[in-house]
Each structure stands twice: as C-alpha cells, then as structure tokens.
Specification:
The complex is a heterodimer of chains A (about 160) and B (about 290). In chain A, about 35% of the residues lie in helices and about 15% in strands. By secondary structure, chain A is an alpha+beta fold. A 5-stranded mixed β-sheet of chain A has the order 2-1-5-3-4, sandwiched between helices. In chain A, α2 packs across α5 and α3 packs across α5. The model of chain A has no long low-confidence stretch (mean pLDDT about 95). Chain B has about 290 residues and is of the alpha+beta class. Chain B has 3 domains: about 45 residues, Uridine Diphospho-n-acetylenolpyruvylglucosamine Reductase, domain 2 (2-Layer Sandwich); about 110 residues, 2-Layer Sandwich (Uridine Diphospho-n-acetylenolpyruvylglucosamine Reductase, domain 3), CATH 3.30.465; about 110 residues, Enolase-like, domain 1, CATH 3.30.390.50. Chain B has 11 helices and 14 strands. In chain B, the strands form 4 sheets. A 5-stranded antiparallel β-sheet of chain B has the order 4-5-10-6-7. Chain B has a 4-stranded antiparallel β-sheet with strand order 11-12-13-14, with helices on both faces. In chain B, β11 and β12 form a beta hairpin. Classes of the chains: A alpha+beta (about 160), B alpha+beta (about 290). At the A-B interface, β4 of A face β1, α2 and α5 of B.
Chain lengths: ~160, ~290
C-alpha cells in the first residue's frame, strides 16, 4: 500500500506492507534512527513518537495507519540540540545510556504543550509509560521541570 | 517483531466496515490496536484481514444526555481520563488504564469487545450498568453488558457485528463509584481490581449497588450476592466488610507471578471494602456542578 507520512515536516511516500510497524517505517524507510526499538511489546516507550501531536508507542501502530498524518520524532525537536527540552536534558544530566531519551523528550514536549508548568507529580505521571533502564528518573524529572521553567511565558 | 501477513482495509463508514468484515473469514476490526497488535506480533492472533475503523467520522462521540454517557467506538481512554462528563467508577478507572501512551490510542469500546478478564472496563461497566450498541448487516441491537461478556476473550457479537458505542447508565440521584486497582507497575495488568457503584435513596439507604471484580476469575465477575446484600441497607463499614467477604468467596484467583491465590482473595476482600467506602463517600458528598 502506498502511504504518505509527514515526518518532521517533510512528506515521505513509500509502498509498504500493511504489517509494517510505524517504528520500522520511520527507522528503515524514512531513515531516522533516533526512534529506538526497546521492548517491542508496548511496554517501554523507547519508540515513542508524536502522531498528530499525541505521544504513541510506534511499535504498536501500523505504518499504514499513519497515512496522511504528521509524525514528530526526536530529530524533529531540533537537529542542533537547541530545543528547550533537549537543552534541559543536557544541562540536568537527564540521561545516562540515552536509550529512553528520545521517547522521554517527546513525552516531555507533549506534556509541556498541554501543561506549561507541571509539578513533579504531573511529570512522573506523564512519563509513567516510558521506562529508563538506568533508572535515572530523578534527573529526567528535573530536566523536564527545568525545560518548563525555560519555556515559561515571561510576565 | 512483525505480525503475520494480513490484508488491510481503511473503512470510511460503519456500513463499509461491516461489509468488509463480512467479506472473508477471520477478519478483525482495528480500533486502538493496543491489545490486538501486540497479540498479532506474538502470533497469538493471526487475522487474515484487518478493518481499520479509525478513519470513520463520528465515532469519537463522548456525550452525556438523558441519563446516558455515550462512548463512541473511537473514544480513547485518554479522552475519558480528561473528560468532565465521566462519573463514579468510570472517572475513577480511566486514569488507571495501562499507561499514558496506551491511553492515547486504546479505546473503551475496543477493550470492552476484547473481553480480557484482566481488562478493567468490563468490571466498571458491570458495576455501573451499561449497554453495548452493536451494528451488523441486519441493523442495530442494544446488548446489556451482562449479556455481552460471555467468556475469556469472547463476547456475544455476531460475526458481522461491530460495536459502535457503549452507553453507560448515569444515575439520577445521589450516587458514587470507585475503581480500586492493584498493579505491579504502570502498564501491567491488574493483579486484582474491584469496581463499585452505589446509589442512595432519599433516606440514605442503598437503592442500587453494583460490584464487579477484575483479574480474579476466568471472566470479569459481577458479584450479585454482594449487590443483593447491599441493596436496601444503610451504608456502614460492617456492611461493606460483609460484602468484601462475599466478593472474596465469589473470586477464583489463581496463583501466578503476581501473587498467591489466597493473597489475591484477601486483596479482593480489602479492596471491595475500600471501593464501597469510596463510593458511599462520593454518593453522600454535595452534588457537584
């Protein structure tokens, strides 16, 4: 089937099998490997992307279902790492091995879009579908709070 | 992991979806896909064709009117967790469905149709009261939730029927509900969960009681003995403890990685008491909004 997916603002058209998962489509066909495959069983959230702005596990969505949709991957946040969420993860040491980081940052971006001033609890609740194998949650929460402060409207 | 090969149809209307479902053997509807796709990847399910209902307009209706909360087939768990229209055990359960990412995608109607005994919504609906609206080639029928859930992963839908919405009964007077869920971690299935719903008469006695259990029997279990015990009585800790005993007796938990059968039975006992207590407290609280 022919599908057209807008990934980070660019349209990509491919002929794919219906059984191709969105995460494999993004990594293999579109060629963006920032989206990781962790558990591949809808548990860990390493494959999180924003599908029309909403965080989803890309291992549990078919590529054909994303036809006509906008997908944001970690590469879409900022190629130079200057996005406030990326900057805050760097500044606050919000990563250790980095495997969960793309998913964490996309969930954080969606959270801050909806709630620009989250509490620690709000952040913990929002990232509860994303596992960090290094258990670096403290600094991930700190980083997301810091990103919130950095992006807070002035005045 | 890839599912085995299947044909894919993106349906644009309910009629088109029903026709596509009827055209072939082993055809499944795809809504949120948060249970179906993992089952297909592990080859527990190998449908020949998927009929994707996501493109169908109008199925995302979430509306409360005339004593009914209408939940369309494409209403996601996250929509329910965010909504002001929910109440009682429905509002209590919504934030505890799986994890935030799964809630963004999975649907109540899909979960209800899936009939996983470890699924949360069927217990909530059995306790609160609801009807499932199914449409097939011969028209629409309304199935009480008690007749809909027939067994493990089994419902009473005909082959060509699709669930278009679930209608949850909204109580008229003082009412409350609660869903108490024990899970090892976010996103895991319930180890044990209890849904409770209470409606109070003008004199403060219980006019209607609903109680149902998750993950402690081969099917979501409505504890009719406890419901009968509660009805007509004044809410009290002793009464709720007695209901907890009946719920524990009605449960058939199995020992597994999540705990021993005896321990789970005790959780049923305790959570039933807590769920009824929370339901009664909500029912007695001043009416909101």
């Amino acid at each position: 089937m022919e599908v057209t997916v807008t990934v980070n603002g660019t349209d990509y058209t491919h002929d794919v099998e219906p059984r191709l998962l969105l995460v494999d489509h993004v990594r293999t066909n579109v060629g963006l490997t920032g989206t990781h495959i962790g558990c591949d069983t809808t548990s860990c959230g390493a494959c999180t992307v924003l599908l029309d702005g909403v965080p989803v596990k890309a291992c549990t969505v078919l590529a054909v279902q994303a036809d006509g949709c906008a997908v944001t991957t970690v590469e879409g946040l900022g190629a130079d790492g200057s996005h406030p969420v990326q900057a805050a993860f760097k500044e606050e040491h919000g990563l250790q091995c980095g495997f969960c980081t793309p998913g964490m940052m996309l969930v954080a971006t969606a959270l801050l879009e909806e709630n620009p001033d989250p509490t620690d609890d709000d952040v913990r609740w929002a990232i509860s579908g994303n596992l960090c194998r290094c258990t670096g949650y403290m600094n991930i929460v700190k980083a997301i709070r810091a990103a919130a402060s950095a992006t807070a409207p002035v005045g | 992991m890839f599912p085995s090969k299947f044909d894919y149809v993106a349906a644009r209307s309910v009629d088109e979806a029903i026709a596509a479902k009827a055209d072939g053997d082993d055809v499944r509807f795809l809504a949120g896909g948060q249970s179906l796709l993992p089952m297909m990847k592990t080859r527990l399910a190998t449908p020949a064709k998927l009929v994707d209902i996501n493109p169908i307009p109008g199925l995302d209706t979430l509306e409360r009117s005339n004593g009914t909360l209408r939940v369309g087939a494409l209403v996601r768990h996250a929509d329910l967790a965010r909504s002001d229209l929910t109440f009682g055990a429905v509002a209590s359960a919504a934030p505890w469905i799986s994890d935030p990412l799964v809630r963004n995608r999975g649907t109540l109607c899909g979960s209800v149709s899936h009939c996983d005994p470890e699924g949360d919504w069927n217990s909530v609906l059995l306790a609160t009261g609801a009807d499932v609206v199914a449409r097939g080639r011969n028209g629409e029928r309304v199935v009480p939730i008690t007749d809909f859930v027939t067994g493990v992963f089994t419902n009473s839908l005909a082959d060509d029927e699709m669930v278009t919405e679930v209608r949850i009964h909204v109580p008229a007077g003082n009412a409350g509900g609660s869903y108490q869920k024990l899970e090892r971690k976010v996103g895991d299935y319930a180890t044990v969960a209890v849904a409770a719903h209470l409606e109070l008469a003008g004199d403060g006695t219980i006019s209607r009681a609903g109680l149902a259990l998750t993950a402690v029997a081969p099917i979501n279990t409505k504890v009719t003995a406890a419901e009968a015990l509660l009805t007509g009585e004044a809410p009290s800790d002793d009464l709720f403890a007695e209901a907890g005993e009946l719920a524990a007796q009605a449960s058939e938990p199995r020992s597994d990685v999540r705990g021993s059968a005896e321990w789970k039975r005790n959780v049923v006992r305790v959570f039933t008491r807590r769920a009824l207590g929370a339901a009664a407290a909500e029912a007695r609280a001043p009416t909101k909004g």
